[in-house]
Amino acid sequence: MAESLYQSLVVDRARRPLHGGAIEAADGAGEGSNPLCGDRVEVTLRLGADGRIGTIRHRSRACAICAAAADLMADSVDGRGREEIQSLRALFGRMMEDGAEALDATSRERLGLLLAFSDLHEYRSRRKCAALPWSALDAALQAGYRTGSEASHAAPDVAIIVFMQGEGHGE
Length: 171
Hints:
Elements: H1 8-15, E1 28-34, E2 39-47, E3 53-61, H2 64-77, H3 82-98, H4 105-111, H5 124-147, E4 157-162
Parallel strand pairs: 1-4
Antiparallel strand pairs: 1-2, 2-3
């Protein structure tokens, strides 16, 4: 596999995530798992009054790519609203399918640090590792918007997504 998959940024974020942990009084929580390879990601978030992500955390028991993708995703969506997040996720998905070369300069700039995963378009099963945190984020956002950002901070709704497309990590 290409050494670029494990760039220093990916390895560093997998080992020392900046957004690791969980939010106890979260507005939304979502879990994603791929039982074929064992990756599991939980995303918790707190929404601001404007509906934008105010705080986001993740707990990942996953390969380096998945764990780093969760942390870099959290960086990328922190402070953004639902439409911005959906747009960024679509752009990330396009990069996963076609590579960064297929994107214009503005799109690459919007992806920022997420470009660290641009080589994954060549490795179908590894794309799933990078995509799993986005599924957990979707579930957390659904739960958060259902609960409402002004809801009491009791237990959040938890949406669970089991990600079972294709194989595990093997090519």
